[in-house]
Amino acid sequence: ALGHAHSIEAWRADELVGGVYGVAVGHLFCGESMFALAPDASKIAFVHLVRKLHAWGCALIDCQVHTEHLERFGAVDWPRPRFLARIAELRERPPMGPAGSWASVRPDIE
Predict the structure, then answer these.
(1) 40 near 64, Cβ under 8 Å?
(2) I need a labelling partner for 96 at 20 to 30 A (CA). Which of 12, 61, 87, 90 fits?
(3) Containing domain of residue 78, as a range?
């Protein structure tokens, strides 16, 4: 199905300098990878992703690997049974955000 895998990109002028990609299912976002070609570029993309997901009612972001950086956003380790039960519930919810591509979504820059 279309519209499940998404990239959130950080650009400097016309140069891609960082980003995050992952898969959205129901009200769950599973982060797959981050990269940065400029200092903190992936972190900036992640912050914007978290803000959008929060606005859309995302209930859980699966970070896969615990890091101090993600802990600053509230990331915690869960026992596997708790995690599996929660994702079973969240994946059944209607999709969050715009249907299909998120290409039209722009950051809320203040």
Answers:
(1) no
(2) 12
(3) 5-90
Closest CA to 34 of 58, 53, 10: 10
78 phi, psi to nearest 5 deg: -120, 150
User: What's the pTM?
Assistant: 0.85
Is residue 83 a part of any domain in this protein? yes
C-alpha to C-alpha distances, 84 to 3, 32, 70, nearest whole angstrom: 23, 17, 20
pLDDT per residue over 1-23, tens digit each? 567 889 899 999 999 999 999 99
Residue 15 has which token pair? 């140069």
Question: What CATH number is attached to the domain comprising 62?
Answer: 3.40.630.70
- Contact (Cβ atoms closer than 8 angstroms) between residue 53 and residue 90: no
